[in-house]
Amino acid sequence: MTNISGASSGSSTTRRGRVVGVPMVCWCGAEIVGKISKSDPNPYRRYFRCAFAVSNKLMDDNHVFKWVDEALLNEVDRLSSEAKRLEQMVRESEIVFDGAEYAKMVFDKVLMKVEEEVFQKVESVVSESQRYMKKLMIVGIVVCMIVVGLGNFI
Predict the structure, then answer these.
(1) Which of 57, 63, 68, 79 is positioned for an S-S bond with 50, CB 3.0–4.6 A?
(2) pTM for the complete prediction?
(3) Nearest to 79 by CA among 120, 114, 109, 108
(4) What is the residue-wise DSSP string for 11-27?
(5) Are 49 and 33 spatial neighbours (Cβ–Cβ below 8 Å)?
(6) Alpha carbons 41 and 2: distance in angstroms, whole number
(7) Could you give the C-alpha distances from 82 to 43, 47, 113, in angstroms and in order?
(8) Mind listing the pLDDT tens digit for each residue in 9-33?
(9) Where are the alpha helices (DSSP H) in 12-99?
(10) pLDDT tens across 102-142, in order?
């Protein structure tokens, strides 16, 4: 697996195995940071990367690298499978509890929990994107102010 931002592979393979979903920590114990690709094949595409590998500018290593869009799709698939499994458990429990209303109540609670998990994951990625855009706007404003200041000086 290559971890340069030009890679188009979404599966992240490390010494510890394939990373499924949104990675939380690298196998080395370092936290995961969100980055934006500056490569020609994947310009401005967001990805997750091991903070240790980022700080040491490691290339072609075994530290975590995963595209954000593919990580979120993995997460949605995992939660969907979990919802189906729980739905099946609820259906099987209808016989035991002898009541469709109780099963529906349990199913609705489980479904709400799964939806909350998906919402929280998506919301965290969106808030990280917003913070990054604010930083970019500040840099742009500062650069414009410098250009205007130099223009007035010259």
Answers:
(1) 63
(2) 0.47
(3) 114
(4) -EEETTEEE-SS--B-T
(5) yes
(6) 14
(7) 34, 25, 11
(8) 444 444 455 777 788 889 898 999 9
(9) 51-55, 68-97
(10) 777 888 898 998 899 889 988 988 888 898 899 899 999 99
